[in-house]
Design goal:
This protein is an alpha+beta fold. It is built from two helices and four strands. The chain has a four-stranded antiparallel beta sheet, covered by helices on one side.
């Protein structure tokens, strides 16, 4: 199983700001807040709650890590 720390390392070139300290601080997140779940298509769903979101309902950051190209994708089932 891939960890969020491995995904952060592998996306350093393809998504350099996604896990930056400034970005995480803006959304009220920590790297340890992210959960990783392997999908049937080989990608990994990463998800974390946004503590600084101005919504009454919980709001989450959700991306899909594609290990074949080290990119973060927005939608489930998109290649």
């Amino acid at each position: 199983m891939m960890t969020i720390y491995e995904i952060k390392k592998r996306t350093k070139v393809t998504a350099p700001y996604f896990f930056s300290k400034d970005t995480l601080r803006f959304f009220g997140q920590r790297i340890s807040d992210f959960t990783v779940k392997k999908q049937n298509d080989g990608r990994y769903e990463i998800k974390a709650i946004c503590r600084n979101a101005p919504h009454e309902e919980p709001h989450y950051t959700v991306r899909y890590f594609n290990p074949s190209n080290d990119k973060l994708e927005l939608e489930e089932g998109v290649e």
